[in-house]
Amino acid sequence: MKNTVFFLLLFVFMNLSYAQDIRPCYFDQFINEDSLEEAERQIQEGINKFQSDQRNTDSAKVIPVVVHVIHNGGSENISEAQIQSQIQILNEDFGKFENTNGDGNGVDTNVRFFLANLNPDGKCTNGIVRVRSSLTNHQSYQRPLLKELSFWDNSRYLNIYIVKSINGNVAGYASFPGGPPDEDGVVVQHNYFGNIGSANGFFGRTLTHEVGHWLGVYHTFNNSCGIDVCYDGDNVCDTPPAFEPNYSCVTLNTCSNDIPDLNDQKENYMDYTPGACKNMFTEGQKMRMQSTLNFIRTEIWTDENLINTGYDSIYITPDICPVIADFVTLTKDVCIGNSVNFSDISLNDGTIWQWQFPGGTPSSSNEQNPLVNYESIGSYDVILIISNTITTDTLIKENYINVSAPGVGDNLPYNENFDSGLYPPIDISINNPDGTITWQLDSLAFTSSNYSMSINNLENTNYGTVDEIVLPKLDFSSNTGNLLFMSFKWAYARSDPSYSDELLVLLSFNCGNSYTQVFYRSGSGLVTGPTQTTPFIPDSTQWKDAFIILNNFKTESFVEVKIVNVTDGGNKLYIDDLYIGNGDDLVAMENVFTDNLRYAIYPNPVLDQLNLELILEESQMISTKLINALGKVVVNNYPQNFVTGKHLITFSTSKLPQGLYFLILETEGNYNIRKVVVQH
Ligand SMILES: [Zn+2]
Q1: Active site residue: 92, 183, 210, 560, which one?
Q2: pLDDT for residue 500
Q3: Distance, CA 170 to ligand 1 centroid (Å)?
Q4: 613 and 567, same structural domain?
Q5: What's the rounded Cα separation, in Å, for the pair 97 and 117?
Q6: Adjacent-strand bridge partners of 415
Q7: How far is the centre of ligand 1, averaged over its atoms, from the C-alpha of 217 (Å)?
Q8: Do both 604 and 655 map to the same domain?
C-alpha cells in the first residue's frame, strides 16, 4: 500500500499537475503496522455486528477535542477564533449540516466534536494549550517529542497539534485507531487549519480528512484499483476505487473494476482533491467510524466522559476560566553548566509570570519562557506563579531539575567491531523508543571477523521512528595528534527505489541536552547494494566507508556519540568497524596504489602547487578536499565523473599558510587520506 501511494505521489509531482508543492497527507507514512491488523479486524467485526443491530450507530457520538498549538511566536500561533472556525467546519462536514459546504451527497456520520471545557484534572479550560517550542518545525521522527510537550489522555480527548511545518511541506497526518498512545492524534500545519486567520487552503478539509483516518477510514485511492471493491482498497463498498490520488476537481474515472463503473468520488473527503469540491463521507465510511468508536475508541464519547470534559449541553461555562499554572521542559536531567529551556503551558491566558529557580541562574524571571543555567550539582524545585488581572495560580514541581557532574569520558582511541558477540556490546546502549524492531548483532555479514550490527527496516515498519546505537561517553580532548576523526563501514540496500531509510551520526557535548549532526545519508547516498524486497545481505564489495572529521570538537571532554537509524520501511542497514581517534597514524606521507585506484601526490612537502595524479581502470565519481589541521576545508572540489585513464588534478598552495594539511580523495565508497606539508 505504502509503495503504491508514494510512487503515485512522485508520479503526480513529476507531471506538475498539482499546483502547490505540498503533500496533502502523510497518513501512509505513519501507519503503525504492528497494531493495524488487529484494528482492522475489530473494525470489520464491528461492522458485521451492526448489520444485525443498528442501535449503536443511530445517535450522535460527541468527541472532546484539545488543540495543542506548538509555535515559535509567529503566525502559527493561531487565534482561538481560527481554532473555533475549524471545529465548526469539522461538525458541518461530519454532520452534513444543511446549507453548509458539508451538505453534499453523503451521509451524516453521527460524529460531532467540541473543544473541551474541562481539562484532565476537571478544571475549566477553553481546550487550547499553547507551547512555545522549536519543535514547531516538525520532523516526523520527532513525533513522540510533541507528546512530551503536551498530551491529554487519548482515551478521553482527541489530541490535535498545530505546527508551523511538517517535514517541510506536508499539510497533515493522523494516527490510525489502535496504535500506541504516544503516537495517537492528529498533526496539522497551521495554514491548513480552519478558514480564517493564517488559513490559506483546503477550506479546513485537511482536518476533516485526518480525523477520518483517526476514526479508521482509509484514502479512497488506497491500494489503487485493488481487486475487490468491498474487501480491498479502502475496504468500503460504496466508495468507487481510484487508481491514484486526484488533485483537481476534474471528473475522472481511473478504475473500471467496479460494477456499475462509477467515476472517482472527487467529492469524498478521503481523496486529495481541493477542499472546494469535497463534501461527503459515504455510509460505508460512516460504518467504519462508528465501528471504531464502538469497539476501539470506546471511552471517549461516553456520557461519563462528556460530563468530565464539560460538554456544552451538560456544563455551564463560567464567564472566565481561572488561570492554571503549568510548564514543561524537554529534559529534566542536565550536567553542570547546562541551560534548560522552560516552556510555559499554563491554561487560560495568563499575562504575568513569576518564576523561581532555586539553584539556577537567573534565580527568578518574569519572562514567559525563560532560559536557566545550572552550575551546581543537586535536585532543584521550580516554582511558577501565573496570573492575569483577575486570577492567579501557583505550581511547585519539587526536585524537578537534576544536575549531575558531567564526568570524564573514556580516552581515545575508541574501537568497536562488535566481534565480542555481546549484546548490547560493552558500554554501548541501544535506544529503542517504540519497543519494536531495533539494532541487533548480525553474523550474516561483517567486515571484521564475526559480527556487525544491523537493523531490519523491512520489518521495522513503524515509519519515522528512531533506533539509536549510543556509544560510551568519550573524551575527545585525550586525542593526540593533528587529525581527530570517526570512521565506520556501512552497507544498505533499498526495497523500493522511491523511498529510503536514513542514517545519522549525532554528537552531544551537554549530556544529551542538544545534538549536533555530523553525518547524514539517505536515498542514493546511503545505498551500497541493489534494490531488493528480500533481506539485503552485503558481500565484501558492498560496504562503504564513512569518514567524519571531528577536529572542530577536539577540546570536548564528555561527548555522547549516537548512530541513528530512522526507518522508512526500506531494507537492512549494517554498521561495522567503528573507530574514533587520531587519524595521523593511519595517514602516510607516502603514495599508495590499490587495485582499482592508483594515485600519487607530489611534491610533498609542497611550495605553491600540489599535484594529484590518478590512474583509473574504470570511470568513477571522485571528489577531493584539502583541509587544514583544524579540520577546516580550504579547497573543495565537488564530485565529478572521471573517465578511465590518467588524470592530473592540481591544487594551488601558494596562498596557504605553512603547516600540515590533509588531502582527502573520495571515490565511490572509499576515502583516501594523505598528509601534505606546505612549506614556503
Ligand atoms: Zn490522508
Answers
A1: 210
A2: 79
A3: 11
A4: no
A5: 23
A6: 579
A7: 9
A8: yes
Q: Is the peptide bond before 530 cis (omega within 30 degrees of 0)?
A: no
The total of other beta-carbon atoms located within 10 Å of residue 642's CB is 17
CA of 160 to the centre of ligand 1 (A): 15
Domain end, chosen from 383, 404, 425, is at 404
Which CATH number fits the domain that encloses residue 203? 3.40.390.10
CA of 660 to the centre of ligand 1 (A): 56
pLDDT for residue 471 is more than 50: yes
The reply to whether 319 falls in a domain is: no
Q: How many whole angstroms from 545 Cα to the centroid of ligand 1?
A: 39
300 Cα–ligand 1 center, Å: 22
Distance 523 CA to ligand 1 centre (A): 24
Whether 183 has a pLDDT exceeding 60, the answer reads yes
- Report yes or no on 207 lying in a domain: yes
Instruction: Tell me which residue of 326, 300, 315, 317 sits closest to 129, measured CA to CA.
Output: 326
Place of cell 472566565: 320
CATH number of the CATH domain containing 653:
2.60.40.2550
Q: Are residues 475 and 418 in the same domain?
A: yes
Does residue 545 fall inside a structural domain?
yes
- Which comes out higher in pLDDT, residue 141 or 363? 363
pLDDT digits (tens, 9 = 90+) for 11-68: 333 222 233 457 788 876 666 667 888 999 999 999 888 877 766 667 899 999 999 9
Q: What percent of the chain has pLDDT over 70?
A: 92
* Position 621 in a domain: yes
346, 373, 404: which is the final residue of a domain?
404
Please tell me whether residues 422 and 381 are part of one structural domain: no
The count of structural domains within the chain is 4
CB crowding 588-615: b at 16 or more within 10 Å, else e? eeeeeeeeebebebeebebeeebebebe
Q: What's the rounded Cα separation, in Å, for the pair 489 and 578?
A: 7
How far, in Å, from the CA of 402 to the mean position of ligand 1?
A: 42
Alpha-carbon distance of 113 to 207, in angstroms, equals: 12
209 and 170, same structural domain?
yes
Gap from CA of 207 to ligand 1 centroid (Å): 10
Does the annotation count 210 as an active-site position? Answer: yes
pLDDT attached to residue 627: 85
Which range marks the domain in which residue 371 is found? 327-404
Please check whether residues 555 and 444 belong to one and the same domain. Answer: yes
pLDDT given at position 160: 98
pLDDT for the residue numbered 208: 96
Q: 31 and 175: one domain?
A: yes
- Ligand 1 centroid to Cα of residue 219, in Å, is 6
Predicted confidence band of residue 462 (pLDDT cuts 50, 70, 90): confident
Query: In this structure, what CATH number is given to the domain that contains residue 347?
Result: 2.60.40.10
pLDDT at 11: 32
pLDDT at 590: 52
Q: Which helix (H) or strand (E) holds 635?
A: strand 633-642
Question: E-strand spans in 483-596?
Answer: 484-492, 502-508, 516-522, 544-549, 560-566, 572-582
Distance 107 CA to ligand 1 centre (A): 20
Same domain, 32 and 169: yes
- Cβ–Cβ < 8 Å for 573, 454: yes
The structure's pTM equals: 0.72
C-alpha cell at 459: 520489518
Q: Kindly state the helix (H) or strand (E) to which residue 606 belongs, with its residue range.
A: none
Q: Tell me the helix, strand and coil percentages in the chain, rounded to 5.
A: 20, 35, 50
| CATH assignment at residue 532 | 2.60.120.200
